[in-house]
Fold:
Amino acid sequence: MDKKLKEFFKNLVEAPSPSGFEQPAQEVYRNFVKEFADEVKTDVHGNVIAFKKGSGKLKMMVSGHADEIGLMVNYIDDNGYIFFSSIGGVDFSLLPGFRVDVHTKKGTIRGVIGKKAIHMMEKDEMGKAPKAEDLWIDIGAKDKKDAEKRVSIGDPITFQAGMEELPNNLVLTKATDNKAGVFLAGALLRYLKKTKISVNLYCVSSVQEEIGLRGAQTSAFGIDPDIGLAFDVTLATDYPNTSKKRFGDISLNKGPVISRGANINPVVYDMLVKTAEKNKLAYQISGEPRGTGTDANIMQLTRSGVATGLISFPNRYMHTPVEIISFKDLENAITLAGEFVKKIGDKVDFIPKV
Structure:
């Protein structure tokens, strides 16, 4: 991956953006895509929509969601310890001992998530997953008044930022889900910079996916696309104690995943597979027998219906601060999405047929 794309990815994953508080990541996206788009706008919901004009009539929306899971300040006790609620699907059993950033009006404050030491636990407490009320954040405050000078109820909290490259094209971040999808939306525009396309392309960095696909719903309604393509992560099954029988055989470095099933328009699916094969791109297939938990689900059901597809990236350790994906998979996805967009013209018929 070239330097500019890697810098874009790094800036995205390090920008704090829990659901409802996405604008730091959205600013990274805006700054990147403005060079490649004919128009960039932000709607009232916070979605950022970068538009590339085509020569035809069809409209295509691609979407990656900018929000990540996180925490929120819920209560400050008399001793200055912060109790919190979750933003999105957080596994509380993983949290004790993590460093976190509390994002306040006065800036970012570092804290650590604490719990009762193992030496103090009764036997029936050991081995049990902690509840929210069993954990707290320590910011070094001497009492409640001291803490309230720096932190307010409702302040968002994220895991400590950072990006580390590992061997074999792998990269470790706290927020691959789904800054990888936002990255692809921006990288797609860059890929098509010097290309004249027929379809009118709307590359969306959507908000609030982790709490109900909310940004994709409002942006898709506003765009009213004919074709939709969601970019998201999917569960890798190439590490211990995962069930391929249940979740399929999905590995890092074996290409992006093309979904097939009820949420996916069969013409879009066939075109994606043929595009991958024509360009000799590695790809994997995931069977999705019902609606997916991605922006593809809401796009498909917008207004009178949208011909929708889904490109995903295998992701290890989903919804943890140590998510791992492959840069190689991302690069293949850029080419796949770019060459697919080039094929879309007014004469393409997306009506399913026998």
